[in-house]
From TrEMBL:
Belongs to the skp family. Pfam families: OmpH. This is Periplasmic chaperone for outer membrane proteins Skp. Residues 51-82 form a coiled coil. Residues 1-27 form the signal peptide. One of its GO terms (biological process) is protein stabilization. It comes from Tepidicella xavieri. InterPro entries: Chaperone_Skp, Skp_dom_sf. One of its GO terms (cellular component) is cytosol. One of its GO terms (molecular function) is unfolded protein binding. PANTHER family: CHAPERONE PROTEIN SKP.
């Protein structure tokens, strides 16, 4: 009876050791990469070009908003200075004008921000699509099993972000 239990224990230990060895061998063959999308959006030439395009596209509207803000501020300061000398009806009329100017400014500002965010998302989506094509090319060429784009922690040896940025910048 003792010999049977020892034999079972030995076989169990052998299976356990072989399982650990097989898992270790599989882990060494499994190739993982990591890409930091924030860095791609910040450092790649494609992202910088998209940002420049957006700045050019929205700079006129941004200047108009700034001018409108300055006009509103100036009108408000002028009203504050002149309010004591104005009649009640003049004061009420000027207050309404200021409220209308502020409402117009707030509406334009909101529309500007919505349009800018929409265009920014469109441009970043195009950069991301190009980056994903480069990532797939790198994965296929270098035989990666898995490439992730978000992680809590990643060992720097798995980070391929620089290669993806270079691929984007070189027009891959």
């Amino acid at each position: 009876m003792k010999s049977i239990s020892r034999d079972v224990i030995r076989r169990g230990l052998t299976v356990l050791v072989l399982s650990v060895a097989a898992a270790t061998a599989m882990a060494q063959e499994f190739k993982i990469g990591f890409v930091n999308t924030d860095r791609i959006f910040r450092d790649s030439a494609a992202a910088k070009a998209a940002q420049a395009k957006l700045e050019q596209e929205f700079s006129r509207r941004e200047r108009e908003l700034e001018n409108l803000r300055n006009q509103l501020r100036a009108a408000s300061e002028k009203f504050e200075r002149e309010a004591p000398t104005l009649s009640e009806s003049q004061r009420t009329q000027r207050q309404r004008q200021l409220v209308d100017m502020d409402r117009d400014f707030q509406r334009r500002s909101r529309e500007f921000q919505e349009d800018l965010n929409l265009r920014k998302n469109e441009e970043l989506q195009q950069v991301l699509e190009r980056a994903n094509r480069v990532i797939r090319q790198i994965a296929e060429a270098e035989k990666y099993d898995l490439i992730i784009q978000e992680a809590v922690y990643i060992n720097p040896k798995h980070d391929i972000t620089d290669r993806v940025i270079n691929g984007l910048n070189n027009g891959r």
